[in-house]
Design brief:
The complex is a heterodimer of chains A (100) and B (647).
Chain A: H1 4-24, H2 28-53, H3 57-87
Helix pairs in contact in A: 1-2, 2-3
Chain B: H1 2-16, E1 19-20, H2 29-45, H3 53-76, E2 85-95, E3 98-106, H4 108-131, H5 138-157, H6 161-179, H7 186-217, H8 222-228, H9 234-251, H10 260-263, H11 269-278, H12 283-290, H13 292-295, H14 299-322, H15 326-346, H16 352-379, H17 397-411, H18 417-431, H19 434-463, H20 480-501, H21 505-514, H22 526-548, H23 560-566, H24 571-617, H25 624-646
Parallel strand pairs in B: 1-2
Antiparallel strand pairs in B: 2-3
Helix pairs in contact in B: 1-21, 2-3, 2-5, 3-4, 3-5, 4-5, 4-11, 4-16, 4-20, 5-6, 6-7, 6-11, 7-9, 9-12, 9-14, 11-15, 11-16, 12-15, 14-15, 14-19, 14-23, 15-16, 15-18, 15-19, 16-17, 16-18, 16-20, 16-21, 17-19, 17-20, 18-19, 18-20, 18-22, 19-22
Classes of the chains: A mainly alpha (100), B mainly alpha (647).
Chain lengths: 100, 647
């Protein structure tokens, strides 16, 4: 039998993969994908708990997260394209002008 | 002693109830208006009044004098108890219960001063027409002189301390303007500044005294203050007395504020005669005598006045002995003679009358001596060094005779006026009894001998002996516009003392205001005899030193005392060491504290924030991934904290 603990464990694993990816990868596209991974790990946890408690709140929030994630990707990719045009690079470390 | 002081309060009570001025006296505002109008015409009129300005300048004091004589005659017509008359010119200050009418008081004391100021003032104005005839700025000079007269008359006529104070500051201003009249001479400009600063110290004392009066009695009018002063505590009366004394010290060049008077001789000689000998410098004596009801209540304040007077009379006399500049020798003498007046004023009702008598007589003979010195200076191409004079007697006979009469008056040879007015002061000092009386009397007695010495020295060095002038100077007698005032003043020097003292004339006249001495002595007293003997000794020593021997043109090195006296008994050095240097140290310390302490604290705080934020800023590296890491760490910490708290 697959218990909620299994779903939560998968969610944690996905979140950690995403977090490590955000921290260690330089390519902005990959960083984006890792962010999506973390968001979806959170969605999985939401849905699991909603199912566990027999309530719909968590499932509704999962939809909200998906909408926000879609919007975020649109803006983020637009910025990324603009940076790539200006600097010929998609590395997040090259975009370091805004500092002290 | 208390009994006599108490008895002296009774006449004051009579003086408190001032009547309203009527008749001629009702127009006493004219006394101020004449010289004020003169000053306004001359100073505002500018160059277009150059040709006739001096005539206006002379006419105004003469008119004021004529009016003063008329007011005096009217006063003599009243019985003694009704001679004090007040009149209100306008409401000066009108704030709640603080009411100061701009009032004038014509009484026996103020009329004495008014007659002296306008009378001697007129003579000196006439003299100045000749003395300043070659000066392109003569009109401005007369404008300032008239301004001085107006302020001085306000000083002595005001029936409240605020009016007195306004006049007090006015004469200070006029004195400053006139000492620095030749402002292109650095010495004159510096002397004017010095006089102004020294006077300011005294003025602070006077203004604090007036404020204290208002705080204690709620009034600054003479009537209000003197009517309630006996209900004040002893400490308050003493404080007011000492503050008034400080004011008097500044204006009258008394120790410790004496140092400005000798430098003030940089001004034109008529200024020295009028302001720095006859009138303004006696304002301190007027202040003390006018405030008699205050000083009568405080033996401490009285003795302070007497000590200041005694110290100054010796101080000035010693300085006068060593100066080769004729004007400075006379200035030392002025300081010394005002010391006599202060000493007398410090004796209380026993001395007030004699202080005023000596003041009036001194006004004549000292003004005469200064005009004589001015006349000589005028003819000797502005030379003032007595070592370059000698044998002027034959060249300027009228100056010689008038100067000699003034000389005989100041050293106190009978029957000249100094004899009548100085001896009662010495006598009254001894009569006070006790150690203080003996000390004050001895100082006054010694002063008489020293006075004889330095005045004889001046006479011998100036008028007798070999002619030590340059070949270029050819002194002749001054024009009659200058000699006439000198002659009138010389007559005053001869007659004033006897006129005032004999038959107790001044005492009976002033008694209702100042009180009368509890014990009266005749003209010939043992103290007076002692003074005469010392005068003979002083004249003898001076003749041995300067009459029998030839006076060297360059001053000999001299003894320690001579050197000290030439340097004004180190008055400037004392001021410098005691006030200026510590003052400079204080400012440096304040600046240091301000820079390091106050600014230091503020700057340190600012620097700490600036420095730390500069370091904190380095956290903003611009690397997105490091931000992500810090967010992660923060989130983990938050979650961890929540878990820990929950458990």
């Amino acid at each position: 039998m697959v218990s909620p603990a299994h779903f939560i464990a998968l969610s944690v694993i996905l979140f950690v993969i995403g977090a490590v990816g955000v921290l260690v990868r330089r390519n902005a596209i990959v960083v984006f994908m890792c962010v999506e991974l973390m968001l979806n790990a959170a969605n999985l946890a939401f849905v699991t708990f909603a199912r566990m408690h027999g309530a719909l709140d968590g499932q509704v929030i999962a939809f909200f997260v998906m909408v926000v994630a879609a919007a975020e990707v649109v803006v983020g990719l637009a910025i990324l394209t603009a940076i790539f045009r200006a600097r010929r690079s998609a590395s997040v470390d090259d975009a370091n002008l805004m500092k002290y | 002693m208390t009994g006599s002081a108490h008895a002296a309060l009774v006449p004051h009570a009579a003086a408190l109830a001032s009547l309203h001025a009527t008749g001629i006296q009702d127009a006493a505002g004219l006394l101020l208006a004449f010289p004020l109008a003169g000053a306004a015409i001359l100073l505002l009129g500018g160059k277009r009044t150059n040709s006739w300005g001096h005539l206006v300048g002379v006419a105004m004091p003469v008119l004021a004098f004529a009016y003063a004589v008329a007011a005096f005659v009217q006063m003599l017509g009243y019985p003694a108890a009704q001679r004090s008359r007040d009149l209100v010119l306008f409401q000066f200050i009108n704030v709640g219960r603080f009411q100061i009418p701009m009032g004038l008081r014509l009484d026996q004391l103020s009329i004495c001063f008014v007659l002296l100021i306008t009378g001697v003032g007129s003579l000196i104005h006439i003299f100045a027409v000749g003395y300043m005839s070659h000066d392109p700025e003569r009109r401005r000079f007369f404008g300032y002189m008239n301004l001085f007269l107006a302020a001085m008359l306000l000083l002595v006529l005001g029936n409240n301390y605020l009016g007195l104070y306004a006049g007090w500051e006015g004469v200070g201003l006029a004195s400053y303007l006139l000492i620095g009249f030749w402002q292109y001479k650095p010495a004159a400009a510096v002397a004017a500044k010095k006089a102004f600063v020294a006077n300011r110290v005294g003025d602070v004392g006077l203004s604090l005294g007036i404020m204290l009066m208002f705080a204690q009695f709620g009034s600054v009018t003479f009537t209000g203050v003197f009517g309630t002063v006996h209900s004040a505590s002893h400490g308050v009366v003493l404080a007011i007395g000492l503050l008034l004394l400080l004011g008097a010290c500044g204006k009258s060049a008394q120790v410790p504020l004496q140092s400005w008077l000798l430098d003030a001789m940089e001004g034109p000689t008529p200024v020295s005669a009028l302001i720095h000998a006859a009138t303004m410098v006696t304002a301190g004596v007027y202040l003390i005598v006018r405030s008699a009801p205050i000083f009568d209540l405080s033996a401490g304040a009285r003795i302070a006045v007497a000590i200041v007077g005694a110290v100054t009379l010796l101080w000035g006399a010693i300085i006068g002995c060593a100066k080769d500049d004729i004007k400075k020798a006379l200035a030392g003498s002025t300081m010394s003679q005002i010391g006599y007046m202060m000493l007398a004023a410090g004796l209380g009702p026993a001395g007030y009358v004699f202080a005023i008598a000596h003041l009036l007589a001194h006004g004549f003979f000292k003004a005469g001596l200064f005009l004589g010195a001015g006349s000589i200076k005028h003819e000797m191409n502005d030379e003032v060094d007595m070592r370059r004079f000698g044998g002027i007697a034959s060249a300027m006979p009228i100056t010689f005779v008038t100067f000699t009469l003034g000389y005989l008056a100041i050293i106190g040879v009978p029957p000249f006026s100094g004899f009548f007015t100085k001896d009662p002061i010495i006598d009254a000092a001894f009569a006070q009894g006790g150690t203080s009386g003996a000390l004050l009397g001895t100082a006054a007695l010694l002063g008489a001998g020293i006075t004889a010495f330095y005045m004889t020295r001046v006479m011998l060095m100036t008028f007798f002996g070999e002619r030590r002038w340059d070949e270029k100077v050819h002194p002749h007698e001054a024009p009659s516009v200058m000699t006439a005032p000198m002659i009138v003043l010389a007559i005053g020097s001869v007659a004033a003392g006897g006129l005032l003292i004999l038959a107790n004339r001044l005492m009976n006249f002033l008694g209702p205001v100042t009180g009368v001495p509890p014990v009266l002595h005749g003209v010939w007293t043992p103290a007076g005899g002692g003074a005469l003997a010392l005068v003979v000794v002083g004249v003898g020593i001076a003749w041995v030193m300067y009459g029998r021997r030839e006076v060297p043109v360059t001053a000999p090195a001299g003894s320690l005392v001579t050197v000290a006296a030439r340097k004004d008994l180190y008055g400037d050095a004392i001021n410098e060491g005691l006030l200026m240097r510590p003052g400079q140290w204080l400012t440096r310390l304040s600046v240091y504290f301000d820079n390091r302490g106050v600014d230091g604290l503020v700057n340190t705080v600012a620097a700490a924030f600036g420095g730390s934020s500069g370091r904190m800023r380095k956290v903003q590296t611009g690397f997105v991934r490091s931000y992500a890491l810090s967010m992660l760490v923060g989130a983990v910490l938050l979650v961890g904290t929540f878990l820990l708290v929950r458990l």
